[in-house]
Structure formats: C-alpha cells, structure tokens
C-alpha cells in the first residue's frame, strides 16, 4: 500500500542440511534481513517457495526461531532473565515444573549463572544477547535463524559470543542460518558461506569452510587459508558495491 | 536529592511563617486570610470530629467508582484501537470531537440525565479521565516495537496469547501514565461536581463553608484536599512499584 516497492531478493535457490552452520554475507542493504524474515514466516515472499523440513512456510514454522540483532528490543523488559528463558519453554508447551530446571541449565550454559533474577535493563548488551540466545534455545528449535546477532556488540564481546554460540551449536545439534556483514565472523563460524549480490540479491558464490572444529579465535584466524577466503569474499563484495 | 528536599521544606516553612505574621499583624484582612495556626487548628478539630474524613470518604467513593469504570472501559478499548486499524479509524473522529470538551461542561447535561445523585458525579469523572486513559493506552500499544512482536510470533505464539503476554505488559508503562495523569483530573472533577450539586463531599464542604463565612473551615477543606492529593500520588507510586517493578527500577535508574 503506497510507496515504492523494492525487489529485495532475486533468484535464490539454496538448501541447508540438518545440523549445518551456514552464513549469508553480502553488501549492506542487500536484502539479507528480508530473506531471513521470509524464512521465519514473518513476511510472505511475493514469488517463490520456502520449505522448512519439507513443509512450505506459511506463517512462522513451529520448529524454527529467529534471533534479532536488536536484543534490547527483542527481550521482554518485564520478565527477568529466568522469565525470558522460561518464555521459550512455555512457547514450546513445556510443563512449568520441569521448565525451571531446564531454564536455569540454559542460563548457566550461556554464562549467566547468578543473573537469573535480573531484568534485561540491568545487563550489558552482550549479556542481553546471551539471554536472547538462551531463550531461543529453550524453544528447542531445529533451525535457528540469526540476523546479525552480534552486530551491535563491541569486538571483544563479539568474539566471546561467537565461541559461546559454536559451543552451544555443537552441544545441541541445531541447524543455524546466520546473517552477518562481518566476513571473518562468517568464516570463523560457518560450514558453508553464501555470498550475496546487491539487491535484488542473488547468490554469487558458495564457499565450503573446512577448518577443523573446535575452532580457535587465534589459531584458526591466523591460518593462511583464512585470509585467502576473506580476501576472496571481500573482493567479490567490494566489486558489488562499485558495480 | 535529600538536600533539595530539605531546602524545599525550608521555603514552605518560611512562607507559612510570613503568612502567620501577616495575618496576626493584620497586614491582610484576617477575615479573608486567617492565620495559619487558626487554619491548622480548625483542620485538626474537623479531622478529629470526623467531619473531614466523612466528606473525603464521600468524595473518594465517587472518584474511585468513576475512575475504575473509566479504566475498565477505556484500557481495553485503547488496546483494541491499537491492535485493529479499522476500529481505530472508525472511532478516531468521534474521540477527537469529544476530547476537547472541557469536562465541567458535561455537568449540566449529566444533571439532566442523573439529577444531583452520585451517578451524575460518577459520570462526569468517568468522562473526564476517559481520554487520557484511552489515548495513552492506544499510544502504548501502537508504539510497541515490531521486533518485539516479531519475536513473539517467531516463538509461535497465537494472537490471543500475544495480547496477554506481550502487548499488555509492553504497553503497561504507558497505561500507567494515563492512569497517573487522570488522577488530578479526577480530583478536580469530583470537587467541581460537588460544588455544583451535592449535599456532601469535600467540594460541597468547601463551598458551604465559604457561603456561611466559616473561612477557616474553607481553608481547612483546601488543606485536606492538598493532603489527599499528595497521599493519592504516593499510593499511586506504591502501586506502580509493586505492579511494574521492572519499569519502576528502569525509570529510577535513568533519573
């Protein structure tokens, strides 16, 4: 209704395997968020089809959850840390009695033990995003979508959270679809990276990242291959920006 | 903060002292402005004789009923207007037409419908705080961030649960603001409606005292209202703190 419509996404055809960690990287404004929102069933694509576990997406799929970049807006300000995580379990339909223990275990897993009764505003940004991740994991999603989840955190906190995320991913065996504009972050985290073009975005490159896991912030990033891949993606994206 | 409050107390005491001296020295006509000591004396007499508590109670009953009714009707209405654009558009013009009417103007019409009974005052109070409650609730719902609503739906929450578990708590601070803004309005309207047509209540008491030229009693009634307003505000803060502890803490930190 009104305004111009922009075609954010062009021809994208891709498939993510169960248990995979896949990232999209691309120039800013390339429609990454639109893509993720469509997969999450929050907006309907004007054309094309999205399948999650073989079922067409028509509204939010039951086995998938989206973590937003804006943790300060996505957390429930009126719920404590524990309350926020319990929300994920409630939404999954868990019984109250077994929930609390599980929520506390998840809070410990993301490194927030002792903060259960704090409200979100009492926490730092990094801690808030930890809560959002714990809440998402409490829902036991088979697919976790993440829209630049660490984009507004300081560099050190970001590295910490990357490792937390990898640990949780390995432990809980979820499929993660990750969006970032940080090329190195994508390489460090992913099994596979798709590089997107400017809008209407299309996949211009698919890269398999086969550094052994567990990865290490210092040694993995210091490998020669790491820099090669980074430079390759960087060239592609900057070509896109000047094209 | 403590110090500034102390300064404030000093100023008030100094003002009262000047008043006392001015009345005693008859710089002002003591028939119109009795000494503070006399007003306080009269106030305490009326307090212990039970007359002021009785009048306050009569006013409070009306105020509470009108206020509660307005909250019960206009908070849900505001939520629905915030949720459904077609409801909002259907009602917006009517609200915008009714809202600028100064509430005391409603009294003559209310008298036609309800006479001088309690219902008249309750209706006027109901009308007067309808708009701050409605519009604040509506604003609160409309200003909920999309990310929050998207989060709720990504967790598969159905619409009905989103209303109870997300929209209501997320807009509760602003609903609270509407209720807080209404508080002094309620006090004003209960007094005015009692002055216009009543045989009891603090508004009636003050006007009656003035007509019988019991000036000290009139001021004592005003003092009672000042104290009442202060106490109500403190009670409201208490309610805010216990109902929305998370929000109370958040706003206290920002001060």
Radius of gyration over C-alpha positions of chain B, nearest whole angstrom: 22 Å
Provide the helix percentage of chain A: 40-55%
Helix percentage of chain B: over 70%
Structurally, the number of domains of chain A stands at 2
Q: Strand percentage of chain B, roughly?
A: under 5%
Q: List low-pLDDT spans of chain A.
A: none
Shape of chain B: globular
Radius of gyration of chain A, whole Å: 18 Å
What does this entry look like structurally?
The complex is a heterodimer of chains A (243) and B (255). Chain A has helices spanning 32-39, 71-74, 81-92, 96-109, 125-138, 155-172, 183-189, 219-222, 224-242, and strands at 21-25, 51-52, 55-56, 64-67, 143-147, 175-180, 192-196, 203-208. Chain A is an alpha/beta fold. Chain A has two domains: 1-63 and 142-243, Rossmann fold, CATH 3.40.50; 68-140, no CATH class. In chain A, a hairpin with a 6-residue loop joins strand 7 and strand 8. Chain B has helices spanning 2-24, 36-48, 51-83, 85-98, 106-114, 118-142, 146-154, 159-196, 202-211, 215-243, 245-254. Chain B is globular, with a radius of gyration of 22 Å. With 255 residues, chain B is mainly α. Chain B is built from eleven helices and no strands. The longest helix of chain B is centred in the C-terminal third of the chain and has 38 residues, at 159-196. Chain A binds chain B through residues 37, 40-42, 60, 62, 64-66, 68, 70, 73-74, 76-80, 87-88, 91, 119, 121-122, 139, and chain B through 145, 147-148, 150-151, 153-157, 165-166, 169-170, 172, 244, 246-247, 249-250, 253.
Which helices and strands appear, and what pairs or packs with what?
The complex is a heterodimer of chains A (243) and B (255).
Chain A: E1 21-25, H1 32-39, E2 51-52, E3 55-56, E4 64-67, H2 71-74, H3 81-92, H4 96-109, H5 125-138, E5 143-147, H6 155-172, E6 175-180, H7 183-189, E7 192-196, E8 203-208, H8 219-222, H9 224-242
Helix pairs in contact in A: 3-4, 3-5, 4-5, 7-9
Chain B: H1 2-24, H2 36-48, H3 51-83, H4 85-98, H5 106-114, H6 118-142, H7 146-154, H8 159-196, H9 202-211, H10 215-243, H11 245-254
Helix pairs in contact in B: 2-10, 3-4, 3-6, 3-8, 3-9, 5-6, 6-8, 7-8, 8-9, 8-10, 9-10, 10-11
